[in-house]
Amino acid sequence: MSQPSRERLMTGIRVTGPLHIGHYWGTMKNWAQFQNDYECFFGVMDWHGMTSAYKISSQILGWSEEMVAEFLAWGLDPEKSTIFIQSQVPEHLELFMVFANLTPMGWLERVPTWKDAEADAKQSDTHNLGRFAYPVLQAADIAIYQGKKVPVGADQVSHLELSREIIRRFNHLYKAKLTEPTAILTETPAIPGLDGRKMSKSYSNFVLLTEETEKALRKKVNAMVTDPQRVHRTDPGDPLKCSVYGYHKLYSQGDLTWVEEGCRSAGIGCGDCKAKLSENIDKISAGPRALKQELLADRKKLRDMIRFGNEKARNEARKTLELIRSSMKW
Ligand code: SF4
Known about the structure:
This protein is mostly helical and 330 residues long. It has 14 helices and five strands.
């Protein structure tokens, strides 16, 4: 049997507040698997959070610690992988400055996502240099660990391409051999918000990755919009027009026929259907919820674990920075 690859994988999540349920399917589930196949670096990217949350900076540390607790609760293993907080590994910013100097402005202006982000940035008072230069920091985040693999959704491929270009330019200028990362394309199922719109903090329509109690989870599920044509219990419905069904497709593989037939024939009510969904989500989240609460209840222990991860990350980051400086003869 062939040995599993232990190529290095770097990824992270921008800190903007508590994680939502979509992070399970798009992130946690994949990451827990990746750590068996790769040497993983999982970052809590608080400098990236700061680009938009700089006015509420006092919240970022708390969110970051909570995010580490989420990572651990959902199965990331600090012995197998390196789990760290970005700002506590200052080498990220040192490499960012190196890369910022060799990245032409035009490269950033051409990033397709910047065009969409720019309008939002102007509206939200985040039309700042930090947000504009975000992809350069991403390149540094990857290169500082010599990351070979980077999991990305289809919408982030252009960012990774820019990282590759920046690293290539560095290698060309300084005759260096920094690792050029390649993508692992991941799929993130679209999960609707409670009101059927895109799940977003600004709409307050999200379910947390780890709701504090089962009751809180049930309350959120009960608030989900259903097929608007199904006004009375006796009206047949169409699951394809219902957000609850979208969730069932992810959480209730064994109950899908019950949902589909029951909805179309009015054999079940929306209350029954939502109760089943809460039950199925809770089957996955009850364990992580208990673990997360345990981790947050002992902050000292959690902070020790964070320090351990930061130190592991720094050891690698320092090595890369030495390489950078010696390549640059600086
Ligand atoms: S029975 Fe379920 S799928 Fe059908 S409309 Fe109600 S909540 Fe939606």
